[in-house]
TrEMBL record:
<dbReference type="InterPro" id="IPR011978">
    <property type="entry name" value="YgfB-like"/>
</dbReference>
<dbReference type="Pfam" id="PF02810">
    <property type="entry name" value="SEC-C"/>
</dbReference>
<dbReference type="InterPro" id="IPR036255">
    <property type="entry name" value="YgfB-like_sf"/>
</dbReference>
<dbReference type="InterPro" id="IPR004027">
    <property type="entry name" value="SEC_C_motif"/>
</dbReference>
<protein>
    <recommendedName>
        <fullName>YecA family protein</fullName>
    </recommendedName>
</protein>
<dbReference type="Pfam" id="PF03695">
    <property type="entry name" value="UPF0149"/>
</dbReference>
Amino acid sequence: MKRLVSTPEELERLATLLQDLSDSQPDDEAVPLDFLDGYLTALISGPTVVTPIAALSELFGDDWSAAFKETADMQEFVALLTQRWNVIASQIDPDRLMQSPDDLSLSPLITELPPELHAELIKKGLMTAEDAALMPAAGALWAEGYLQALDNHADSWTIKDPESEAGVLFDELLNSIAAVMLPEGDERNEYLQATYERTDVSADEVLNDALFAAQDMRLFWIHYAPKPEPRRVEELPGRNDPCPCGSGKKFKLCHGAPSSLH
């Protein structure tokens, strides 16, 4: 698959239309672009086929299109969302990942305020130091969106035996993604010590490993996707046995006749 890219203009317009859609939701249900990108990435990575439109219904309700006053805006939003979906799918295309397992192909949308901007906002009185400390880490909203998609599709994202090789690997990948959301403190340090055998791990390194985990999750579900239950076919009676329909005729002269089998 050819690797696609999202242009800055496309992403800016997608963010604007997403904001229009989010404005129609309760304040606690606003969906940032980072979150949406993580959500789409998980759906593309998962064991079942889901469409971008289905993602909109899951996040905004079945009447999400009513939030757009203009039909043209709604259609443009769907087109841009689908285009972004295709970009992510090309980045984590299984053939690409298997050919270059050591390359980080996934390039998520992550908004980050640089430390110098934090300092400037605090200096101008637009943000307190406490507020700056509570700002989510880079990639946290993306990881939150990823995990929300998993939660919404928990029935399909299930490993029957958590103690199996697949179950252990699944937990490792999931923990790596969730680690991006861990705030500074004991829980984060415990995770870093257990995973890296040290606690002086940069946020960039944790995020980088989370993105590799998301790539590995794409391959994981190709290998461990639930197999469909085999269709049970009952054994046919012998040609000279009575036909099971109860006609009294031999099977070969009734439902076993060539005209009945085709």
